[in-house]
Design goal:
The chain is mainly beta and 497 residues long. It is built from 4 helices and 29 strands. Strand 17 and strand 18 form a beta hairpin. The N and C termini lie far apart (49 Å).
């Protein structure tokens, strides 16, 4: 049930009062503690302003951790320094940082204890709660794990720190028998501590044209393949101008089965398709934005004679991925909020609220479940999941904002990073300029990643696109792609080649 604004505000006030009255005074830090812990303000991502929440969280976390360490607060909440750099400046042994994401009545909490000297993440928590009050449980759980670690033999000034057991947010199920050797916990905040990136060697995928459709008037903006009509034959679904078109390949022809007019008021970001209500007919997920850049996505389904909406006004970016061992998986991400800058009338547009989740249908909408283990900096259009190391263990592979490939383990820890760009997508969203309120900037989306066994030899490749940018990335607001090719890369033991 969605709380009205007044009830929601009162609830968060209760949270802060609870934190204040049931937390010992933060001044009771033990002077005899050998470890110095810098606790940074958590980043709050919320659809409404809750400035008082962070203060309560900090007080509670400080009071808990001060039982085993000296807690210090010398950081500027708006500092441009990394947590590691702030920890070094404060002469801290460890630094605590993280974020809390609030949407509807749910909460997602991410927190990490990082050793300043090595840059290693020694305690990590990723938890999803069904109501906003669960942030209390998350903070207490994280602080307890921090204390358990700090009371261990490797706490203060230790070299290679070990990770305390973490009750992480559920992620895509792993095959325990096929787990790879444990990977050192690497801080996502300290670039120097990340594994040395290994360049990717591109392998052009030679393809033979098996079939080409007749020309379609206008551009095709998005494409999906699924059985929409329930006749056990795959349909081709594509976005042509402002229409969703469902067609079937019939010999050399492309026969239209149905179409749905989306109107001209929205910006359509993507379409995806998959059967997630179990009726043997794939739903079509249309992600779109209003003229005010608000999410107003919809879901279409074949009713036997036409496409009809089965869900409208959905506040999700949708994406369907093929997850090995699970099949089609529906992912969702919320939209971010505008952030006022210190330049007067300018705002920073945040298209994506941190957190990518598996979605399940509930009533006339969708609810968030397991979280995909990637850092908050990634959005839903950059990510895929699969056993990319060919060891049976599912990992997340993602594009960075600069189109560099990155691979993360099940805890969201960076395992491998590329230093050469692939991808490149001409599709962009418009956002108000950060430097001139009279103009607009372009926010470019990433290409798709497809983990798949292309040649049937039992090993997985990752298929994507490499488009050549004429500007070579030197012009921030403009990209022009003059040529492109499909590439497939495979894990070699040291990198994706």
């Amino acid at each position: 049930m969605k709380l009205p604004p007044t009830a929601s505000t009162c609830f968060f006030c209760f949270v802060v009062l609870f934190l204040s009255f049931f937390s010992p005074c933060s001044a009771m830090a033990a002077d005899t503690s050998t470890a110095r812990v810098l606790v940074l303000p958590l980043t709050i991502h919320s659809e409404k302003e809750v400035p008082f929440l962070n203060r309560g969280i900090l007080d509670m976390m400080t009071s808990r951790i001060s039982q085993t360490a000296t807690v210090i607060h010398q950081a500027d909440a708006k500092s441009k320094k990394t947590p590691i750099q702030q920890g070094q400046a404060a002469r801290a042994d460890y630094v605590v940082s993280g974020s809390v994401t609030l949407f509807d009545n749910s909460v997602s909490t991410d927190a990490a204890l990082v050793q300043v000297r090595t840059g290693q993440t020694v305690v990590r928590l990723n938890q999803l709660g069904e109501n906003a009050g669960n942030v209390l449980v998350h903070v207490n759980q994280f602080a307890t794990q921090v204390n358990q670690y700090l009371m261990g033999p490797t706490a203060a000034g230790a070299g290679a720190a070990t990770t305390a057991p973490v009750a992480a947010v559920p992620v895509i199920a792993m095959d325990a028998a096929a787990q790879s050797p444990a990977v050192p916990m690497v801080s996502p905040y300290a670039a120097a501590s990340e594994p040395s990136p290994v360049p990717v060697s591109e392998t052009a995928l030679k393809t033979e044209k098996l079939w080409t459709s007749p020309p379609v008037k206008g551009a095709i903006h998005s494409l999906a393949v699924a059985d929409v009509t329930g006749d056990n034959r795959p349909n081709i679904i594509f976005l042509n101008d402002k229409q969703v078109i469902v067609a079937t390949k019939n010999s050399a022809r492309l026969d239209r089965v149905a179409s749905f007019d989306l109107g001209s008021n929205h910006t359509v970001v993507s379409i995806d398709a998959g059967d997630f209500n179990g009726n043997q007919r794939a739903e079509i997920f249309v992600t779109r934005l209003t003229p005010n850049h608000q999410l107003d996505s919809m879901v279409l389904e074949w009713n036997g004679s036409a496409l009809a909406p089965v869900a409208t006004g959905q506040p999700w970016y949708f994406r369907v991925i093929q997850a090995p061992q699970k099949g089609p998986t529906l992912l969702g991400q919320r939209r971010g909020v505008q952030t006022h800058l210190d330049t007067g009338t300018l705002y920073r547009e945040t298209f994506f609220l941190p957190g990518i989740f598996e979605l399940t249908a509930q009533g006339d909408g969708y609810t968030a479940g397991s979280r995909i283990p990637v850092p908050n900096t990634h959005n839903i259009y950059q990510v895929a999941v699969g056993p990319v190391f060919n060891d049976g263990t599912l990992r997340a592979i993602a594009y960075s904002d600069s189109d560099m490939l990155k691979v993360y383990d099940s805890s969201g820890i960076l395992h491998w990073s590329d230093d050469e760009a692939l991808g490149g997508n001409p599709f962009f969203l418009l956002t108000p300029s950060l430097t001139d309120s009279r103009t607009q900037d372009r926010f470019y989306l990433s290409q798709r990643l497809f983990p798949i066994d292309l040649d049937g030899d039992g090993t997985l490749e990752v298929v994507t696109v490499h488009n050549r940018d004429l500007t070579r990335g030197m012009v921030e607001r403009f990209r022009k792609y003059t040529r492109g090719r499909i590439v497939a890369v495979k894990w070699s033991g040291v990198g994706l080649k």
